[in-house]
Design a protein that fits this description.
Layout lengths: L2 H17 L1 H7 L7 E5 L5 H10 L4 E6 L2 H14 L4 E5 L12 E7 L8 H11 E10 L6 H10 L2 E7 L3 E6 L4
Parallel strand pairs: 1-2, 1-4, 2-3, 4-5
Antiparallel strand pairs: 5-7, 6-7
Helix pairs in contact: 2-3
């Protein structure tokens, strides 16, 4: 096992206590039957919790550029018998997902690492369903007003700000 995977997996129990992922996902409106994209999923911390919320009728796409992380996630999902997840080696700018196929695009401490943020925003707009949600939580790594401006310039409108740093945008109607 690579050292990054080992280190990240050791911190997961502490993350669960600090971040309360199920509560956070319910707060953003994730429900049974939805399709959820976890951008920069790492080892799938949020993806596994999302999987239990969306249930058998829903789908979770766990996307990361790091193939070792995606392999770890895929193997863990298989060991646990989780069927409603799809592990993808891809980046935020080119997810490979069909247009208008996702209800929620979720980024937790990821946007600051995305190389071409505007192209990624256009990709999120393309893959989100009508009234789909883009959820970005950078925990003060990036200024909130900068994220808001970038999202709004890409066709999203801010609908809610939660936990001080988590911004929820909706796909705006095309004119």
């Amino acid at each position: 096992m690579n050292w990054k995977i080992l280190l990240i997996s050791l911190f997961e129990p502490f993350r669960k206590l600090a971040e309360r992922p199920v509560e956070r996902l319910i707060e953003i409106g994730l429900k049974e039957g939805m399709t959820f994209l976890d951008v920069g999923c790492s080892l799938g911390f949020y993806s596994f919790y999302a999987s239990s919320i969306v249930g058998e009728k829903g789908q979770v796409h766990a996307l990361d550029e790091n193939s070792e992380f995606v392999d770890y996630f895929r193997n863990k999902a298989q060991r646990k018998g989780i069927q409603n997840v799809n592990a993808l080696v891809a980046n935020a700018q080119e997810t490979g997902l069909p247009s208008e196929s996702v209800d929620v695009v979720f980024l937790h401490l990821v946007l600051h690492d995305v190389k071409d943020k505007l192209t990624a925003m256009k990709e999120f707009d393309r893959i989100l369903k009508k009234n789909g949600k883009l959820v970005i939580d950078e925990e003060n790594v990036m200024p909130l007003d900068h994220i808001k401006e970038m999202a709004e310039n890409s066709g999203f409108r801010l609908t809610k700000c939660q936990r001080k740093t988590m911004q929820i945008f909706e796909k705006a109607e095309k004119q």
